[in-house]
Amino acid sequence: MGILGTGIKEGLLLKPVTYQWAMDLYDQAVANTWFPNEIQLGEDIADFKKMTDEERHAITFLMSYFNPNELLVNKALAFGVYPYINAPEAHLYLAKQMWEEANHCMSFEYVLETFPIDRNEAYNSHVDVPSMARKEEFEVSFIKRMTEETLDITTTAGKQDFIRNLVAYNIILEGIWFYSGFMVALSFRQRNLLRNFGSLMDWIVRDESLHLKFGINLILTVLDENPDLQTPEFAGEIRQMILDAVEMEEQYNRDLLPHGILGLNANYINQYVKYLADRRLEELGFDTEYNVTNPAKWMAAANDTLQLVNFFESTNTSYESNASASGKKKD
């Protein structure tokens, strides 16, 4: 029996573990447990107030996008992933991931509550801003396929829909679009602004790096166990999904930074998006498309995506919940 299936009575015995990578990710995720109020975000209010209108717009725009989309990811997991896999170790990890997405949503609520941001404006932007709404509609279309129609996971067509949903949420939303926003959010700390906000984002990035690793492993496992999915046509479709996502993100970033802020503009972010897309293509076994350099090399210190494959070779004691109090120093 492979990892895909819908039997309720299957997957009730954890040991022996079949997919050790899922168990390892669960253990790491539990060690990484944190809570937003551990960060003294109020210390950043003075920075926020002295920033330019364009800079404040960028933070507000990011919150407008991140806040509802963390909840959207949970829907994709609950309706599009969890019901279609059998392995209990994968279910354990997904349960922790769903809690983390909820924790991220509450983290962005904490930002909205702390900084002088117009909450209604921030909430409405994901509907009112066309480039943001377009990204959301792209994602929603895949959830609809998983929830509003009958999906038979035993068929090739059903398995293809499962992979499409994973690529849409895990590779595109979390692995490219979220990382693009993380880079912008963390760029303020590069200028010694919003340092505590930066620490909050660091913790979110580390969670997301595990989500990404889980999703990539799950996709590759399903492809390995189901040769019927390994066709040039389906591979071409998945590759095109990622390229289309880059084009959507480029427009979004032009709305995020219409004029640019100190050290950052839409072209810079979009080069980073193309760099991210190439990494994701490589991780899925594709050739790269854009072949651009990473313009934000400083992101390596904030858990650069290239380090993901070696994530477990280093311990992040400053982040793990069982670290000593002295090891949990906040920036």
From TrEMBL:
SUPFAM superfamilies: Ferritin-like (SSF47240). The chain crosses the membrane at residues 166-188. Fe cation 1 binds at E70, E101, H104. Keywords: Deoxyribonucleotide synthesis, Iron, Membrane, Metal-binding, Oxidoreductase, Transmembrane, Transmembrane helix. One of its GO terms (biological process) is deoxyribonucleotide biosynthetic process. Gene3D superfamilies: Ribonucleotide Reductase, subunit A. It comes from the Bacteria. One of its GO terms (molecular function) is metal ion binding. Binds 2 iron ions per subunit. Fe cation 2 binds at E174, E208, H211. The keyword Ribosomal protein does not apply. The keyword Mitochondrion does not apply. Its cofactor is Fe cation. Its EC number is 1.17.4.1. InterPro entries: Ferritin-like_SF, RNR-like, RNR_small, RNR_small_fam. It catalyses: a 2'-deoxyribonucleoside 5'-diphosphate + [thioredoxin]-disulfide + H2O = a ribonucleoside 5'-diphosphate + [thioredoxin]-dithiol. Provides the precursors necessary for DNA synthesis. Catalyzes the biosynthesis of deoxyribonucleotides from the corresponding ribonucleotides. Tetramer of two alpha and two beta subunits. PANTHER family: RIBONUCLEOSIDE-DIPHOSPHATE REDUCTASE SMALL CHAIN, RIBONUCLEOSIDE-DIPHOSPHATE REDUCTASE SUBUNIT M2. Belongs to the ribonucleoside diphosphate reductase small chain family. This is Ribonucleoside-diphosphate reductase subunit beta. It comes from Pseudolysinimonas yzui.
